[in-house]
Write a structure and sequence with these properties.
Distance between the termini: 23 Å
InterPro entries: UPF0250_YbeD-like, YbeD-like_sf
Pfam families: DUF493
CATH superfamily: ACT domain
Radius of gyration: 15 Å
GO cellular component, one term: cytosol
Order of helices and strands: EHEEHE
Largest sheet: 4 strands, antiparallel
CATH architecture: 2-Layer Sandwich
Family: Belongs to the UPF0250 family.
Oligomer: single chain
Number of helices: 2
CATH topology: Alpha-Beta Plaits
Low-confidence stretches: none
Mean pLDDT: 89
Length: 106
């Protein structure tokens, strides 16, 4: 049975929050300088927004929620998309999970 054959508890269309986490801090134990750190944050954010908009073209950037971890190693983005089908969400999750900058998608 494929994932699209399984019953869903979600009624479509609906607003569906997707939380995407990525590592943006230094991979070594030493702190990263602010300029490259900000560049990595922007690069991660832009990559995620591009993927989200590919699957949910009506996503409004202004609704993006951004949180940075205490030690500046991780960036969490929450995108609430207007989900129209399970296939749409599955494709979005798959693309996000396959991206090298993404650590986790919830």
């Amino acid at each position: 049975m494929s994932s699209s054959d399984q019953p869903t508890l979600i009624e479509y269309p609906c607003d569906f929050p997707v939380k995407i986490m990525g590592r943006v801090g230094s991979l070594s134990g030493s702190p990263a300088s602010p300029a490259p750190l900000e560049h990595r944050r922007q690069e991660f954010t832009q990559a995620v927004l591009m993927m989200v908009k590919r699957h949910a073209p009506d996503f409004d950037d202004a609704t993006l929620e951004v949180r940075i971890s205490k030690k500046n190693n991780y960036l969490s983005l929450t995108c609430t998309v207007r989900a129209v089908s399970r296939e749409q969400l599955d494709a979005l999750y798959q693309e996000l999970c396959d991206h090298p900058l993404v650590v986790m998608v919830l």
